[in-house]
């Protein structure tokens, strides 16, 4: 019997995950059955169970895949030169988010995963790992902000990361649930709150002893 290639196995795994994602977006985690996944994927129960033994395993795999995608996007932005301002960083990330938030988009799974993590310990583990990894990306960004002089030398980058962390989930929730969020308006708000990087805010903590954009008496 010919050996199945790794490429074929990965393609089949992706086929199952894509089907599960569509089902979860359409019906929610709790309302989706494994039979729904079989039907959407066009595969038999045996074929699906070869890769995933349960719905929880599908949730975990989808959460892990999403975390990898978000990390890749944020890594590229955070390590850009020159350092992007918070508004520029959010602009690039929300641009990507909007490409993933259509009727069957992956971002629509995020609020469902967050709520599931509150009541299901097994599902909570990958969600917590995802959240922790994203907060770590914000910490790296905060360190770069401090190095650039946008934060005081003694700034608590962990605290800054925790505060900045809410910007993207906040955008996702307003975009998906309220439906009236204007992206440019959101970015103006971020730029107003974090006015770093412009010609008038290039002064640094190390040389002025004051916040960027402020004048000393």
From TrEMBL:
What Pfam families does the entry give?
A: TetR_N
Sorted alphabetically, which keywords does the UniProt record give? DNA-binding
Under what name is this protein listed? Answer: TetR/AcrR family transcriptional regulator
Give the taxonomic lineage as stored in the record: Bacteria, Bacillati, Actinomycetota, Actinomycetes, Mycobacteriales
Q: Which domain of life is it from?
A: Bacteria
For this protein, the record's SUPFAM superfamilies field holds: Homeodomain-like, Tetracyclin repressor-like, C-terminal domain
DNA-binding segment(s)? 33-52
DNA-binding as UniProt keyword: yes
Q: Which InterPro entries match?
A: DNA-bd_HTH_TetR-type_CS (IPR023772), Homeodomain-like_sf (IPR009057), HTH-type_TetR-like_transc_reg (IPR050109), HTH_TetR (IPR001647), Tet_transcr_reg_TetR-rel_C_sf (IPR036271)
Describe the location of the HTH tetR-type domain by residue ranges: 10-70
User: Which species does the entry assign this protein to?
Assistant: Nocardia fusca
Respond yes or no to whether keyword DNA-binding is given for this record: yes
Q: Which PROSITE patterns match?
A: HTH_TETR_1, HTH_TETR_2
């Amino acid at each position: 019997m010919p050996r199945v290639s790794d490429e074929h196995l990965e393609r089949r795994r992706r086929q199952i995950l894509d089907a599960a994602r569509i089902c979860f977006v359409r019906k929610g985690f709790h309302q989706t059955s494994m039979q729904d996944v079989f039907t959407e994927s066009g595969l038999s129960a045996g074929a699906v169970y070869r890769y995933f033994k349960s719905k929880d395993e599908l949730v975990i795999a989808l959460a892990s895949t999403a975390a990898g995608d978000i990390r890749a996007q944020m890594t590229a932005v955070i390590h850009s030169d020159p350092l992007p301002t918070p508004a520029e960083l959010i602009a690039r990330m929300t641009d990507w988010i909007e490409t993933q938030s259509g009727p069957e988009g992956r971002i629509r799974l995020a609020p469902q995963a967050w709520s599931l993590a509150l009541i299901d310990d097994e599902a909570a583990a990958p969600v917590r790992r995802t959240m922790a990894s994203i907060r770590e990306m914000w910490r790296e960004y905060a360190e770069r902000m401090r190095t650039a002089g946008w934060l005081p030398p003694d700034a608590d980058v962990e605290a800054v990361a925790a505060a900045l962390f809410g910007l993207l989930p906040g955008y996702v929730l307003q975009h998906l649930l309220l439906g009236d969020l204007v992206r440019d308006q959101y970015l103006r708000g971020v730029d107003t709150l974090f006015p770093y990087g412009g010609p008038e805010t290039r002064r640094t903590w190390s040389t002025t002893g004051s916040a960027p954009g402020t004048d000393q008496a």
